[in-house]
Amino acid sequence: MQFGFLRRTFGLMLAIAGVYEGFMVDAQAELKAGVACVSITPLEAGLPTQLGGYGDRNGKPAEGVHDTINAKAIVFDMDGQRAAIVSLDICTMTRCLTEEAIAQAAVPGLKYENVLMCATHSHAGTEGLSMERKNVANNPHIGLFDEKVLLFTRDRVAQALKEAAANLRPVKAGTGVQRILGMNRNRRHAGDPTDEDMTILRLDT
């Protein structure tokens, strides 16, 4: 199994430590991991899609698909205790989507407290607030709630979690940190500090 799709790293080692916080794990326990990648492109189901972060579009939906947007899941198991990380190609993540996707997946051992879901903050993906039931502002500049889009995305994320859990197998983990000058910039405050460290987690079967 290859884990090449986890190209965008978001401090995975810190994330793993966070989702396992409070667990008592045997130092000699075997680490298992499974991955899955599932499309969360609403237009595949014919659903109008509000794009994230484009207030001036006033809620105008996307006109087509240039690239598929995905949910990428990795599930960890150590001594029967599980945790997961899910990355979504959307602008913002909501608690509503997180809670409902975990409940829909119903993967044994996975609950809200040990699953980290995050957005890649793509402005070419679904507007996160269109998938938040508490969004009653009725303001197209920040996204209008759309239950059909929420349920579609919920089901696809749940599918990714279930597939990743079904793919669990023993792995060996390794990490590395490389400083890359100029890797990013502060576009609002030039000269202010930026994070120049690229942290990599590699898992081998």
Could you explain the architecture of this structure?
The structure is a single chain. The chain has 205 residues and is α+β, with helices and mostly antiparallel strands. It contains three helices and seven strands, in the order αβββαβαβββ. The protein has a five-stranded mixed β-sheet, with helices on both faces. A two-stranded antiparallel ribbon has the order 6-7. A hairpin with a 2-residue loop joins strand 2 and strand 3. Helix 2 crosses helix 3. The longest helix is centred in the last third of the chain and has 20 residues. It is globular and about 55 Å long. It starts with 11 loop residues before the first helix and ends with a strand. The N terminus is likely disordered.
Secondary-structure blueprint:
Blueprint: H1 12-19, E1 31-39, E2 70-78, E3 81-88, H2 95-105, E4 115-119, H3 147-166, E5 169-170, E6 172-179, E7 197-204
Parallel strand pairs: 3-4
Antiparallel strand pairs: 1-2, 1-5, 2-3, 6-7
Helix pairs in contact: 2-3
Reading side by side through the largest sheet, how are the strands ordered? 4-3-2-1-5
Distance between the termini: 7 Å
**Which outline best applies?**
globular
| Average pLDDT | 86
Give the SSE string: HEEEHEHEEE
**What structural class is derived from the secondary structure elements?**
alpha+beta
**Approximately how much helix is present in the residues?**
10-25%
Largest sheet: 5 strands, mixed
Q: What is the tally of beta strands?
A: 7
Strand content: 15-25%
| Radius of gyration, in angstroms, nearest whole number | 18 Å
Model regions low in confidence, pLDDT < 50 over at least 5 residues: 1-15
| Helix run count | 3
